[in-house]
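testing teh design pipeline on a random one, pls ignore if ur not involved
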């Protein structure tokens, strides 16, 4: 996967002395993006960038890059100007910060809603399902669009399925633009899961 220059220079300017989660949050706050921890970790691993952390912060911990100049951080001269322009500064809200309630189509193809500051987002279809049914999505379950249209937020187009059912639907191509056909596919997936469970118990 290729990354824009702003991503690369920000990582190089900020990776030392902070966790991957914090680095991801700072990155997304500064650039208005939605990169995941996995993407940040993969980039650091591929470029042999070591934060210097061992997983624990000792009492009185000070980030390794605190107080260092750009030259001391070993950032290429040609990247320093971009880094200064995009790095997060304490107390400053990024120019592209959006208010709570904002909806955005993210790179994963889903609409996300900003639900809290500084940068907490959730997928819109999950929020709608939970609000309508008054539940929190259980672990191992997900909300799917029956007609495959990720912008059709009708509550009748949203249903709850298990991860294994989702995998079976994808593997057997049992998703259709017709909601009723997809419901039939889900019923087949659930029947197959029950058959597998019974056969496993009989062994």
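output:
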């Amino acid at each position: 996967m290729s990354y824009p220059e702003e991503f690369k220079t920000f990582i190089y300017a900020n990776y030392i002395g902070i966790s991957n989660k914090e680095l991801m949050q700072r990155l997304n706050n500064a650039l208005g993006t939605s990169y995941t921890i996995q993407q940040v970790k993969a980039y650091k691993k591929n470029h042999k960038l070591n934060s210097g952390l061992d997983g624990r912060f000792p009492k009185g911990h000070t980030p390794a890059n605190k107080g260092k100049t750009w030259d001391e951080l070993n950032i290429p001269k040609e990247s320093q100007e971009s880094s200064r322009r995009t790095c997060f500064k304490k107390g400053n809200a990024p120019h592209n910060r959006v208010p709570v309630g904002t909806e955005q189509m993210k790179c994963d193809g889903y609409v996300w809603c900003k639900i809290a500051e500084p940068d907490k987002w959730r997928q819109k279809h999950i929020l709608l399902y939970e609000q309508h049914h008054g539940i929190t999505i259980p672990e191992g379950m997900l909300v799917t669009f029956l007609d495959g249209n990720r912008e059709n937020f009708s509550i009748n187009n949203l249903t709850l399925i298990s991860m294994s059912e989702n995998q079976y639907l994808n593997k057997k191509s049992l998703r259709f633009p017709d909601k009723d056909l997809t419901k039939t596919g889900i019923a087949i997936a659930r029947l197959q899961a029950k058959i597998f469970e019974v056969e496993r118990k009989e062994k």
